[in-house]
Amino acid sequence: MKVFSTLEVPVRRNLVILFAAALFFWCSMASLLPTLPGYVEDIGGTKQEIGTVMGGFAIGLLLFRPRLGRMVDRQSRKAVLLLGIAVAAIAPLGYLFVKSIPLLIALRAFHGISIAAFTTAYSTLVVDLSPVSQRGEIIGYMSLVQPIGVALGPAVGGFLQEQVGYTPLFLFAAGLAVVSAIGACAIGEAKGQGGREKVGDAAAPPGNIPFWRLLLSPRLRIPTLVMLLIGLAFGAMSTFVPLYIRETKVDLNPGWFYTAAAIASFSLRLFIGRASDRYGRGLFITASLACYCAAMWMLSQANSAFTFLLAGAIEGSGGGIFFPMMIALISDRSSSTERGRVFALCVGGFDLGMAIAGPAFGSVAQQLSYKGIFTISTGLAFLALVIFLTQSNKDLPHSLKFAFGRERDKYAL
Question: Are 76 and 363 in contact (CB under 8 A)?
Fold first, then answer.
């Protein structure tokens, strides 16, 4: 991590504080990953209702991310970051009192605002503070916070739920978010530092392009579609793996599945960002999509603890490459004056996939089985791979070359 020694002291300080605040935030969010599906089932929810409740999280993401993206661009990165943390502190307290399915859906939608606000502001701040030539490397290191949080949070959350019940778990999640807020208050936005382009840069698109024109622009359309398809697969995994493990009667704490994924994700993020600055983003995005195909197929066949853990590690490898590389790709394709909205748009594709995954796959589980869910998810991941290979750049030859690391991104600013 020698790159941090080359940064100015205020920039390095901001990145360290931002990382620490994000670590507590992700631990809070991840502590509920393996436990909430079981909580809904324990209060009488059906498989479809479990999917609907878990998918409700993405409703808040979808409804609020565009507005929050505009706030990030036009008002304050830090204020939006703190808003996300505040919601993460309040929402777990609601689970202490809510016992009905409709109210749980509403509470999950509210909770989803936390991710919409935090991730949009966090990604924008990181890119603001990153020199363009080292953008991929710094994004890779700063993205380590998510797998670390997802490694620690589910294991601790699953342990608390098993040993002392849901009430201490929900209080624990809220407390972690409060600690995150205390740290985030010390962050400075450091406007104009790092890789932020000048507003008057002729190469940068104007910052007032309408949201739907951004969506339909060639530079963002395919990343958004790929994020949507992977969001569907990821939503199926995050919602139904704990119940799938319970149904197969495999002796495995579901939290360890997410821990295996997070460890693999962490290991790869140490190296991928720097390599992508040298070899381009396309090769690594292709590899990540291939990992998702393999992981979803393994889950469709899983019947032992080893298979579940191996599938988790492969999915974590895919996620560890996919998310920082997609953030780097859309950063390369956007200017500082539109970056919040661009992140909101492209990551919103992932949100939409997660929103659809819960209720849609819940219906599949009712009619077929959890294995059927992951068979469909395998097909979705494969479709994302094919689309990226053939449509990621200006035409088919350039797309193939970019996707295999043979050519730079033609849409990069």
Answer: no
Q: What's the average model confidence in pLDDT over 349-367?
A: 75
- In this predicted structure, the answer to whether residue 273 has a pLDDT above a threshold of 70 is yes
H-assigned helices in 45-96: 47-74, 77-94
Phi-psi group of 376: left, alpha or beta (phi > 0 → left; psi -120 to 50 → alpha; rest → beta) = alpha
What the block records as the tokens of 190 is 């450091």
What's the pTM? 0.74
Cβ 285 vs Cβ 338: under 8 Å: no
Smallest CA-to-CA distance from 126 within 145, 112, 150, 147 is with: 145
* pLDDT computed for residue 388 by the predictor: 95
- Taking every pair of C-alpha atoms in the chain, what is the biggest distance, in angstroms? 61
Angle at alpha carbon of residue 234, lines to 230 and 236, rounded to 5°: 120
How sure is the predictor about 209, in pLDDT bands with cuts at 50, 70 and 90?
Answer: low
| DSSP 8-state class, residue 3 | G
HEC per residue, 89-157: HHHHHHCCCCCCHHHHHHHHHHHHHHHHHHHHHHHHHHHHCCCHHHHHHHHHHHCCHHHHHHHHHHHHH
- Across the range 183-192, mean pLDDT stands at 71
pLDDT of the residue at 195: 39
pLDDT attached to residue 201: 43
Q: What is the 3-state secondary structure (H, E, C) of 188-245?
A: CCCCCCCCCCCCCCCCCCCCCCCHHHHHHCHHHHHHHHHHHHHHHHHHHHHHHHHHHH
Cβ(79)–Cβ(71) below 8 Å? yes
